[in-house]
Amino acid sequence: MKMMATPLETTAWYDYQTYPDLFCEFKDMNYAKNFVVSIYCLVFIVGTFGNAVVIIIMRSKRKSRRLADIFVTQLAIADLVFLLTLPLWAVSTALDHHWLFGGGLCKICSYIVVVNMYSSIFFLTCMSIDRYMAIVLSVRYGYLRSKRYAVVTSLLIWTLSLALGLPTLFFRIMVNYDDRWICSEINTPPRNTFTLVTRFIAFVLPLGVITVCYCSVGIKLYRHFNKMKKEEKKKRKSIKIGLWIIIMFILSWLPYNVLKTMDMLVQSSTIQASCDTQEAVSKGIKLFTCLAFINSCVNPIVYLVFDHHFRERFFQLLPCEVVRALKVHSSTSQPESTRSQRRNSSFCKEEETVTATKISS
Fold first, then answer.
1. How far apart are CA 56 and CA 195, in angstroms?
2. Which end of the chain is more exposed for a tag (fewer CB within 10 A), N or C?
3. pLDDT for 361
C-alpha cells in the first residue's frame, strides 16, 4: 500500500522495525519474517539462560572477583533486562509489526532497548580503560582500579544511560498505519538533533576510546611478549576475552547505527535518496536490528569458549548426569580444558560419595 503525507501531518517511522518510506512503495519482506521471529526466540532462550549463569558465577566470586568482573556482571544485567522485552518484539514482528501491548509498554520496551545499547558501550569502554591502566599505566594509576571506583563508575554509567534514554519515552507513540497499531517514533528537528548528538557521544566517541586503549595495550604486549611473567600472561587472556566481546558488540550494533542515522537524515530531508536506496536502508535496518539483538546472547558464549574458569564453574552448576553426557567436546591438546574436565569429574565423584554416605547412614 502506498501512503502519502501532507506537511501538516505528523511524520513517524519505526526505529527498531522500520516500515516503508511515506513517499515510496516498498516490497514486503514476509519471507524474512519467520526467520527473524525464530532468531528472536532463540536469542531469548539462550541469552536469558546464559546471562543468568554469568550473574550467578560472577556473584559467587565475591572474594576473588577481579575489577573487570564487576563490569561483566553489569553487562549481563543490562542484557538480561533487555531480553525480557524480546518476546514482545517477536510477537509484534510475527503480526507484521502490529503492537498489541499498548502505548505504555511501547515506550518502556523502546526505552529499555536504548538504555541497553548505551550502558553496554559504556561498560565496554570502562573495561578497555581498565585493561589500559592495568597494563600500560599499572604503576601510576593502580589506585583507580579499586572495587570502590568500579562500583561508583557503574552507578554513574547506569545514571547516564537512563538519562540519555529518557527522550525515547517522549518521542515513542502508537501510530495507526494500514489498520495496524505500530510502536513508532515522532520525527521532529529537536529529536533528530538529539539523536545525532547522542550517537556521537554514546557510540562514536566510546568506540574511539576503546580503539586507542586496545591499540596501546596491544603495542605494549607485543613489545614485551617474551619477557612476560605468569601473571601478565593471565592479563593477556583477559584482554583476549574483552576484545572478543567488543568485536561482537561492534559487529552487532555498528551497521544498525549507521543505517539508522542515514534513515533519519533521509526522513528529515537532510539528504536526498532514491526510492531504491530508501528501500535498501529500510530492509537493512530490519535485518541489522535482528543482528543487534543477537548481541545480548553472545557474551556468555564468549566466556564459555575463552575463559576456562567460567567454563569450569558453568559445568559445576550443571547436574553431573548432564556433564557426563556432554563429555566436554574439547581437544586433548588444550591442557586447561583437560584440567577443567578432571576437576568437574572429581566434583561429580565427590558428590556421589557424599550421597552414598548419606544413604548408608
1. 35
2. C
3. 46
Kindly write down the DSSP assignment for every residue of 218-239, as one continuous string. Answer: HHHHHHTGGG--HHHHHHHHHH
Contact present, 49 and 302 (Cβ < 8 Å):
no
- Report, as an integer, the average pLDDT of 273-288: 82
- Cell numbers found for residue 12: 513517524
Compute the distance between CA of residue 156 and CA of residue 292 in angstroms, rounded to an integer. 24
Distance of CA 66 to the CA centre of its chain: 21
In 3D space, the residue among 137, 127, 43 whose CA is nearest the CA of residue 85 turns out to be 43
Provide the grid cell at 2: 502506498
298 within 8 A of 246, measured Cβ to Cβ: no
Is it the case that residue 61 has pLDDT exceeding 70?
yes
Over residues 99-118, mean pLDDT: 93
Averaged pLDDT score across all residues of the chain? 77
At residue 346, φ and ψ (nearest 5 deg) are -65, -35
Owner of C-alpha cell 526467520:
35
Burial of 149 (0-12, 13-18, 19+ CB in 10 A): middle
**pLDDT single digits (tens) 313-332:** 888 887 665 555 555 444 44
> What pLDDT does 336 receive?
46
Per DSSP, what are the bridge partners of residue 184?
A: 173
- Kindly give, in sequence order, each residue whose CB lies less than 8 Å from that of residue 265, ignoring residues fewer than 6 positions away: 271
Q: Residues 73, 59: contact at Cβ < 8 Å?
A: yes
CA distance linking residue 210 with residue 295, whole number of Å: 18
How many Å apart are CA 204 and CA 261, to the nearest integer?
Answer: 12
